[in-house]
Structures
1.
Amino acid sequence: MRVLVVTAVAAERDAVVAAAGAGAAVRRQSPPAAPGVLALDLREVALPTGPVLLDVLAAGTGPAAAAAATATALALAPGGHGLVVSAGIAGGFADVVPVGGTVVASEILAADLGADTGEGFADAAALGFGVVAHRPPRALARAVAATAGAVLAPVLTVSTVTGTAARAAELAARHRGAAAEAMEGFGVASAAALHGVPFLEIRAVSNAVGPRDRAAWRVAEALAALTRTFTAVAPVLRDGADGAVPHEEQP
């Protein structure tokens, strides 16, 4: 069984691929596309510690790009993927996870999908417009987090990255216990759910959520942590993809 790993950018994709080691065979894949339609650019790699075969995709930034690319990849290989993972670097809420830490999502939340009202923010679910939370399989998320030594907590999906202390405090108050924010997880999870494929989100923290202090970002360290995480969790991903770990959702 294959695992589809969806990242935003090439640097994140390459960090996941690097988990296979320097001597691993990496095959560039471009699944067939209709004339005039851009083909997906995936990397296929086998992780020796699994063994597990990953199709790793740089889908673009944001939930819409992530959802479209994930749905397309799954449609082009029907039944070919037993698990989908949204992966990459993220901002972390400092009181939950430090810079350099790793997070596995217990919930994947669309944090800014909704409307501003006179009483404050109302999410799309409260407005009657659908769901704002996807829950990965509980046992699988726990197993991945335990193996990686990661924090297991909600991860927020935002369309605009937080850049102020006030916004960070607002999100933390609205989503108690959230560990990180990123831009693709909810889109990936939405596409996977429509295809009936279980999903996870794994994030390595490169910076604290809040004021944008580029000098304090640790992108290279976070990418290295992402590589180490995928090396460590390969056997669990294999078991998740072939159903050896139960796929029930959290209540």
2.
Amino acid sequence: MMFRKIVLSAFAKAQTETPGNTKTQWADHLANSLWCEFNYQISRRTLLNYYNNYIEDVEAKELSPNARMIEKLCKYLGYPNYGAFILHQASIQSVKSNEHSQKFTYTLETDSYMEEVTILVRRKLLNPRNVA
């Protein structure tokens, strides 16, 4: 579900940054931004394939973009890396569900290694009297 959220968020950002009003124009902008800002080359067609899969069939099995693509999309979205994106999403979920701790594990796989990271997020109220 996270890959879907990253790809759709990247397209939403591209939509706000370009006067274009088609997904092809957004994909062009996104591919160009990834190249110019992060020296990462990816085709418009590849980005459109992910976007179309995620937008058209919510129940479909999630595609798994490569780790480098995910890292670059997270940077495009303003996060230093995928881990920071996960932490931010955990923070949002924690606030929504009002839970005080959550555990998240994510895996990044490249051609030469696999990295698995588990993050425990704990939230402690500093002033419980101000809680509605």
3.
Amino acid sequence: MATAVQKIILSSSRDIPFNKLVLSQSNVRRVKAGVSIEELAEDIARRGLLQGLNVRAVVDADGVETGMYEIPAGGRRYRALELLVKRKRLARTAPVPCIVREGGIAEEDSLAENVQRAPLHPLDQFRAFLALRGKGQSEEEIAA
């Protein structure tokens, strides 16, 4: 007898105002390494947010949603957006693309988002730089 394949259900996505988002203590990233928040903020200002935040509804002691959302995965992106808000380059109520998760363990989402990421191979990176140069971008634009 054939076993039925269980279909997956993806989490919904929606825009949530920046001022309704808070960092979660469930984010597993503690060590600051790699691209600085300043550099990430400048990239977001120039290019826009390329990857949404992973959020979960904040609930009160009775389990009722408060209207706020915590971010277990995407803390660096949130901090970069926060810097843009502080510098008045982004409105406090600007809509932020978010994946709204329910159930499961927040730390597991944070860990998976960080571990499943694969760095770009240096040859692919070189080819991408070469393609941008071929499309007329300067070395300074590519470096940015």
4.
Amino acid sequence: MNFDALQRRVRRAEAVVQVRMDETVQHWDALETTWRRSWTPGRIVIAGLAGGFVAGRLEPGGAFSGARWLQMIGSVSGLVASAQASIATLQEAGLAAAAAAAGAATGEAAAHADDDAPAPRPQAVAEPPPGTPPRAAEAATELSES
């Protein structure tokens, strides 16, 4: 076989691999969509009950003891909760930024209208009378600094 024939075979094989890879990505996307749609709240509860039953029936102290299952479930639930909190924080930050941008436009007009008004004076912090014991936070700070 000559060199040109080998090059044609390689190009043909690369084309087949590319087509198979595209098909695999399409099938994977379809599987992911179907998987996410199939997890309804009722099915999640049933899966949890079935998992709890299986964990309870396995021998105690084995590789799949109930304590390990509970530890894993606790870890996963903590991970999911922190991810949801992060997403919620990002969404709230985006909403706050949008509100601030909208408020800045109206705030500039209000600020120009209040140019003649005096600026508010800061409140003075009242000092405790001499001889009174320090508050708990102050006492702890003094102890940790020494």
